[in-house]
Amino acid sequence: MEIIMTIINGLSIGGTYAMIALGYTMVYGIAKMLNFAHGDIIMVGGYTIVLFFPISPIVGIIASVIFCVTVGIVVERCAYKPLRGASPLAVLITAIGVSKLLQSTAQSLPFIGSKPKGITYNFGNLQIGSVSISVLTLITILCSIAVMVGLTLFVKYTKTGRAMIAVSEDRGAAQLMGINVNFIIMITFIIGSALAAVAGVFLVFKIQDVGTTFGAMPGIKAFAAAVIGGIGSIPGAMAGGLVLGFIEAICGMVPALSPYTDAIEFAILILVLLVKPTGFLGKKRREKV
Length: 289
What we know:
- The chain is mainly α.
- The protein has one domain (2-275): ABC transporter involved in vitamin B12 uptake, BtuC, CATH 1.10.3470.
- 71% of the residues lie in helices and 4% in strands.
- The protein has 11 helices and 4 strands; from the N terminus they run ααααβββααααβααα.
- The chain has helices at residues 2-31, 38-52, 57-80, 88-108, 135-157, 159-169, 171-176, 181-207, 216-229, 234-253, 261-275; strands spanning 117-118, 125-128, 131-134, 209-210.
- The strands form 2 sheets. A two-stranded antiparallel sheet has the order 1-4. Strands 2-3 form a two-stranded antiparallel ribbon.
- β2 and β3 (131-134) form a beta hairpin.
- α5 packs across α6, α9 (216-229) crosses α10 (234-253) and α9 packs parallel to α11.
- The longest helix has 30 residues, at 2-31.
- The N and C termini lie far apart (56 Å).
């Protein structure tokens, strides 16, 4: 029974990390930048759910996705688009600045403030044979699978998805072929922000407490997942998220390892980078000079 629960918990945690990691890896793969404000998009979504939750949980979820997408578009247009031709260091510093800006803005808002906001909602448990599984855990797993399959099909079979692949491979050539690169990058930010909002929904209902650094650690771990799987690779982000999810689930089942969960996860990250710097499914890219 413990093995079954470990697998279920691993899939639930890993699926959440994978959804966040997909945002990181898509933005890097297409726009060639690391959006370190991605974790704070989760925080924005978390607060949105808390604010709209008294009306209805469904309204809160929908509002969270809409607001996160809006913030993602504004950030991309105002902060990242002017830096298209800038050095990677300038983009990285800007991303960190955007992250701190979002956190500070949230703290300064009177209806948010610096104190964490709580939320209480019990999804109940589902009894399957001798195993009692949280309904929230099952919803998280099913939604994660649906998102991963849907995103894979979208990228592979739609015109916009194929344009994303073209921009990822060679932005200049894609532009010469008539692809609107700015539009494709904006779509990427929209998808990434929506995925961050959905992941934030599961985190909010699981932790039931939202603060201004709510998305910081999940964002860092999701970035680690993207790197482990291969930054820029959609299947890699999924694989990396599941790896970290199972590590957390196993550590949670072993009391002696539980306090060192984060250390073990980042040690695995370092080990993977030492053995295979491109990650599990990442590919070496040749830079044109």
